[in-house]
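Hi Y.,

Following your request, here is the sequence exactly as I used it, all 235 residues.
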Amino acid sequence: MFVVYTINSFLRRERLCPKAFKFFNSWTLREGFKELVVEGWRDEVLAKLNPLSSFKARLKNVKKQMKEWNRNEFGSVFDRIKGSEAQLLAIQRDISLDTLNLQLAMEEKEARSSYVAALREEEKMQNLNHILEVVKFDGSTTADATLIKAEAVHYFSTLFGDSQMREIILPNSMSFHSSLDDAHWQALVVVVSEEEIKSVVFQCKDSKAPGPNRFSAIFFKFSWDIIGQDLVKAI
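Below is the corresponding structure, written out as tokens. Let me know if you'd prefer a different format.
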């Protein structure tokens, strides 16, 4: 008998490919989450780090805290889904062999309810990370999943063109000389204020795709009173 492992399963088994961190917006609704951020942000980092590296190191500390907290807080949800699903399948197998057994029918009903409840809890936990609605080209808003998919296809098809390659030709007569006056040049090198940075952060939609650090915009808004000063220094 031969056992075949895919590369991905082997890496996971050997812990060479750790599971990527994912921030769930619903975490901000859980009691004690802000205290978790405070604790992680206060963890020591190297004093010699520049503000940007220090900010990244603190995010890394918070991420470590969140991973452990997530396992303790929500790990039971996924275990409950697996357990209730296995129980439901086992009862349904027994029913297939004894279709007139009323006791099994009652047990199947209870097991199904437990399974559905666990799925709903998982959905509630993850729902805030889904795209719930989009604004269409005609200005109307839709929350229908099928229309959201169609609108995404339409948007990017329009953005990048049709399947036929189109050449973009820049005429030789096009001018690339500077069109900025001295006032605009000076505006480009002015130090950005804390109010401007905060304004930009809070204008980002909560559902905006996360950056390389995997934290969504809602994390920075929610934790601004904790991390705001360090973010301003980093910028």
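The chain is about 60% helix and 0% strand.

Thanks again,
Q.
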